[in-house]
Structures are given as structure tokens and as C-alpha cells.
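for the writeup, i need someone to sanity check this before i put it in the appendix. the sequnce is what the collaborator sent (i think, or maybe the updated version? ugh). structure was predicted straight from it, no edits. if anything looks off just tell me and ill rerun, i have time this weekend
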Amino acid sequence: MLAPGIAVDRAGHATILRALNASSVDDESARNVERFSGEQRIAAERCTSLTAQKDDVMDHIDEFESMFRRAERESFQHVKIPIESVAFITDQSPEESERRRSELLSFLPILQSVNSWREITSDQYSNVGELLTKLDEHQTDLVVTYRHLQEASLVPQHSLGVYLDVLSQGTTIPVLVLPGTSAHPAPLSDGICDRVMVVADHISGDNGLINYGSRMCPDDGTLWLCHVEDDSVFERYMRVIERIPQIDSEQARELIEATLLKEAQNFIDTCVVELNEARPSLTCEKRVIRGHFLKQYTELIKEGEIDLLVTNTRDEDQLAMHGLAYSLSVELIDTAMLLL
């Protein structure tokens, strides 16, 4: 930066450069140099140094741009999710509720260390409003419940029931949905829940989803990190692209598919690195594929003999449950699910 009040214009700078760089300085050049004060000469030399560096800086622009692009990638940060208080919402008899609670504690040992465990039974609520009021009386980190509370006589199909619908969308508390329905509960997987699958149709940047999956999976367990790019959505956009003559549709298909899958793969790779460091005894399995998401996830669950699914239920653009989560919750009723 030039000293206050000092300015060197192009002509003056050129004159100094000619004077400083000439192998033999003629009288006129010497007089030009003498016109400038010592401060001006120093300023001109600095300008010369900056000018000399310009080409070198330009040569590294591509390298800097590449570094910035790498820095922009989504990265995962591991955080241990606190689960200190649990509310078990049921409409079963006290004896049945206690039996299921004991079974659940064996299935998910992390719940054995919670500080507060309370049961909200059917005699404490008769509608959704009363249930939410009861739930709000105490801090709750996790809700445990069933599909179709107080709906045994309705024999509902292809739904979660009004209570679970509201719990999953009207509160921010994660909901652990036990297999089966309240009227017809299904058994939990034999032994400890040690095979947990995180599912998403857009996994990149979803730290909370991954951290909950990690929290529910015990040491020496296996955490599956899965991303399925939905075929129907992909093909819909490709049909539009194919109608644009200026675009090579075959090349576009290959590039778009590769880019979509690479984004998810890159994020999952960062998850594995962080989880290996934070929880070295945990095994991570990765799956990034394109296909019909319900069919693919059903096959992955069977392949991995999954004990627990973890998925997001909230959609930023709508009040209703996220389409992927709803389909999984309705179709896979014999698998325990954690709805976030």
C-alpha cells in the first residue's frame, strides 16, 4: 500500500521501471529518477514486485478453484446424541406394557441407562390434544409407541394411525415405532439390535440422520448408510431433456446419473472416515444406487437382516410426512423404525 498522499501513475511508473532496469542509464533517465522522492521510489519498486507476481498468481487460479470446490463438499461431523428421557405411549394393559418395555430394553441396551422413563397409558388421553399436552409435561428425548393406537376396532390399512401421524409431524421428538400395530404387536428381532440402516433419498449433509443411526447402533454392530436415487424422478427429468435437441441426451443421462450418485457417495465416504475415528468398533456398510426406492430398500433390508431403520419424516416444503418415510412406515410394518 502506498504512503498517504503518494500516488504513482502509469507514466511515472513506466519511467521508473525504465530507469531502474536499464543497463546504462542516460542523463534523461537519471533526471527522471531524481524527480521522485525516496518514498515514491520504494512505492514504485513494490508495484514492480506485484506486477512480477501477477503471472504466477494467474497460473495458480485453476489450482485455487479446485481447492475451493473440494472445500465446498458436504462433510460429516460426528456428535453423540443424548437420550436421557423416554416416553412409552401405549394403549395396552399395564402387564403387557411392562412386558414390552422389558423386551425393548433387551433389544436396545442404550435405553437401559436413561435417567427418566415414563409410560403414558390410554387412561391418560382420549384424543391427540390430550396426548400432546401430557407429552409436554416433561422433557422427552425419545418417544416409543406403536402404529394405530386406540384403533383396534377400525382395522386400518395403509396408514400409521392418527396418533402416530401427529407425533411424527406435530412434534420434534424422534419416535421409535415398534413392529406391528398396537392391537397386534410383532416381536422384536431376536437378540440385540446390532444392524441399523440409515435410509434417505438425499443423504448429503444430513448429519442428524447419521448421528442418530450411530447412536442406536451398539459397539461391534453394523451401520448401513444407504442412498437410493429414485428411478421415477430421474426418468421424468430425462424425458424432458430428451425433447431438447441441443442436448446430447445419452451423454446427459450418463453425466447426471454419475454426478448424483457421486455426491451421495462422497458424503457417505466422509461419514465412514469420521465414524471409524469416533467409533472404531463400529462396522460401516455403504450402498449408493439408483432404482425404485421402496423395492431397493426392501431388498437391502433383507440382505442386511436389518433390525432398525432410521429415516427422516419431515419435508421442508409440506406439512405431510415425507413421501419416502411414509411409504417405508406403511409397507415395512414388521421392522422397527426410528422416525426423525
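Confidence is low (pLDDT under 50) at residues 1-37, 50-72. The chain has two domains: 10-71, 85-339.
thx in advance!!
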